[in-house]
Specification:
The protein is α+β, with helices and mostly antiparallel strands. The chain has four helices and four strands. A hairpin with a 6-residue loop joins strand 2 (38-44) and strand 3. It is elongated, with a radius of gyration of 16 Å.
Length: 101
């Protein structure tokens, strides 16, 4: 399954209701599972983002649906990144070079 890294920033509403954030995180994990995903980890972070999650999902459409649903709840803004392993990157470069040669 594809791997995704989701960066989340608290909105003003999310910050004001921080006491319920742990419940919202659990709810988000359950939502991702309903969409066919698997959460590998959720982390509270310092810096520009309040949380990040690392997960696997069935496809890009599920990842977009997940991010849009989280954003629509108005507690976080999301940025989702599709992540590739070093091995997958090596294979992409090999394919690229074989096409150019």
């Amino acid at each position: 399954m594809p791997t995704y890294i989701t960066l989340m920033k608290l909105t003003d509403q999310g910050a004001k209701d921080i006491k319920n954030a742990p419940n919202r995180v659990r709810s988000a994990v359950k939502l991702w599972e309903k969409l066919g995903g698997k959460t590998l980890g959720v982390y509270l972070t310092m810096g520009d983002y309040g949380y990040i999650s690392i997960s696997e999902g069935p496809n890009n459409e599920a990842a977009i649906s997940f991010s849009l649903t989280l954003t629509s709840r108005e507690n976080v803004q999301t940025t989702t990144l599709r992540a590739f392993t070093a091995e997958a990157f090596t294979e992409m470069v090999k394919k690229l070079l074989s096409r150019v040669a």
